[in-house]
Design a protein that fits this description.
The complex is a heterodimer of chains A (634) and B (142). Chain A has 634 residues and is of the alpha+beta class. Helices cover 39% and strands 14% of the residues of chain A. Chain A has three domains: 2-228, Aldehyde ferredoxin oxidoreductase, N-terminal domain (Aldehyde Ferredoxin Oxidoreductase,  A, domain 1), CATH 3.60.9.10; 260-436, Orthogonal Bundle (Aldehyde Ferredoxin Oxidoreductase Protein, subunit A, domain 2); 456-633, Aldehyde Ferredoxin Oxidoreductase Protein, subunit A, domain 3 (Orthogonal Bundle), CATH 1.10.599. Chain B is built from eight helices and seven strands; from the N terminus they run βααβββαβααβααβα. Chain B is an alpha/beta fold. Chain B has a five-stranded mixed beta sheet. A two-stranded parallel sheet of chain B has the order 1-7. The chains are: A alpha+beta (634), B alpha/beta (142). The A-B interface holds A 249-251, 253-254, 257-258, 262, 265-266, 268-270, 284, 287-288, 291-294, 296-297, 481-483 and B 27, 97, 99-100, 102-106, 109, 113-115, 117-118, 120-121, 123-124.
Amino acid sequence: MLNVETPLFSTSPKGVIMGGYTNRILEVDLSTNELSITDLPDSDKKRFIGGSGVAAKIFLDRFNIQADPLSPDNPLIIMNGPLTGTTLPGTSRFAACGRSPLTGIWGESACGGNFGAELKMAGWDGMILKGASEKPLYLLIEDSSGQLLDASDLWGKDIYQVTDLLKARHKESKQAKVFAIGKAGENLVKFAGIGNDKGHFSGRTGMGALMGSKKLKAIVVRGSRDCKPALVDEYQKLRIRLIQKVKEAVPGQALRQMGTDVGMDLGMMTHDVPVKNWTSPQDFDLSANLGGPALTERYLTKNHACYSCPIACKRIVKVAGGPYETEEGPGPEYETCCAFGTMILNKDLAAVIKANELCNKAGIDTVSAGSAIAFAYECYEKGIITRRDTDGLELLWGSIDPALKLIEMICERRGIGALLAEGTREAAKKIGSGAEEFVVDVKGLDAPMHDPRGWHGMGLGYAVSTRGACHLQHMTFYVEQGMSAYPETGLKVSYQGPRSEGKAEMYLLSENLGVPCNSACLCLFVLGCISASDFAEMLRVTTGYEGFDVEELLKSGQRINLLKRTINSLLGMKKEDDRLPKRMLTPLSPKGNVPEIDMMVEEYYALRGLDETGRPKRETLERAGLEDLISKLY
Amino acid sequence: MAYRFPSEEWIHEYQKAINASEDYKKSGATWTAGAVCLVVLANPSIDMEKEIGIWLGLNKGVCEEIRLVTVEEAQKAPFVITGDYSRWKQVVLGELEPIQGMMQGKLKLKGDLPTIVRYVKASQDLVECASKVDTRFADESI
């Protein structure tokens, strides 16, 4: 057993965390089993806020970013933001970051639940996990104490099992929170995720594989400190006002009543939902069977909320009996209902819940898993792969049972599962024979379940986002669909409709808002219910940053985006990587239209201050106060 | 002939359009949740001194009843959707889908949101029916 004892924090003499930060990061070397403390520099806090922003700064400053993603030299950086663990609404979030095993570029994946808040209450802004162990370990953090413990008996267990076992083992820490990998992470499936208490995931970009490569099975954390804001009176008033505002907002109400899967019903109406691996138009029969009202009516046992969230969008569900029987547990999100529903023309919601349970337990991203499986179905339909390649499985549209088998095969890297476990893009390269045409990704990250042929700004977001096809680095979904306006940011009134004109400006502003949202670790669903000014106020009253306002917020968005783009440029990303897949540029019907992606990318480059190769220009970096990046890039 | 929105003549044309729609007959076939009342807020600039409710007695894909009601009576419907004249004009023109309008805060719903969301296709079909009525808008005739 290894121990590290840290002193109480100088900024919190009574064990109270002030101003949003603990100013300490736990550093764990899995190669040497050494634990140490790193200070969080003041300059980095205000400039990069926290979360994936600060993680990117640490990654670029301290590590060999060219290191193979699954080598000991690639760190897994888990970071809170200043809002994490406060009692403001939507402040459960934290981020897992590093070079992505799936894409090879900057990878980050935010997660809700309770782990981040508990980590903050234990006194840590985050942790840097570096090196790799030879034998399985888990990390136990109890306030300022950290221990690396043997996890040989946990290796091979699924996320639900390991969560229950560790909570029982450390039951003296009654509120212990667990962040763990399953078989997929152990087997280095490139899109493996990390699960917090069974139902909350850092799903995207393969951070579970990165954790698995370090032989770190889980992190258990228990904290007992209080988080206090810098400006107590203003904070309390703001908190009361914002909770009320979130509760009254219609998007918040819809999420509370129907979960994120309300997006299925509404999205089918607005041509947002991908059908049959992005090849078919809207199908209301599918959404009626797979949507939020159906999920709530047939399978919901109770709502569940992340830490400090008045929305409570999470679904606890149970399929009682039948071929797809499940235990009572976390239900599928909208993306999962598409991935294992509309994408393969399956309309059996019970089967989707089963697929979700399998993915949760094994710890894989349901978006990439469902995309890889839909890709395989299309290869099968076109005769590019046959039953001989699939161990006898007939991958027929509308049939869910082969998909359930494929989930297991991917997580265990068996048969064709081993190929798909490398990610859809790599699988297509190996399969050949035109299979690349069926891949719907950007930079190797499978597209989330929002069709940019209905919403061109979303298409630009997929093309230029710093982690590949992503709908969560920006507020485009809310802005383009007219649910939020954020006029304080310079956004104009209406950007609705499938058109590309003006969308680059809309995207830039909504990205400058969404990026700090992720870095502050605020839930995007909550930001969708409040204003940009409210968000800036949340940061100001929590941190005490004098005069912090929307302008500062947007500047930080620009700065953090440029930092991540610099990392990607150093990792070889060029303008040709800022593109959309052919399928998204193919109309679904003779009347359909597609994003004018070249035009939007050109406009975006000009607005963001990028050169013709996609690199941030020198003067852009200077203006953003990022002079230190110039020598790295030029 | 163009019918003024909202008016007795317009709503009866609307009822005819609904009941002639094969699409709505199918998409609304399982609707048994009761009446939906559309409330148009007062707008003195176009001589609408009071709110006007359009009571739609919808049942199993059929519009059994349609009538103009007061705002007080409108509140008796299980579903009340309220918006100003310009918003309803957008709806009638097919420029604003009502459920999307609710999510955007342009229209207000009193009633069970999940029930309404379950019928997004029926909602679209009702809008399609409205767009088929030859409509004259009060703000355009002034």
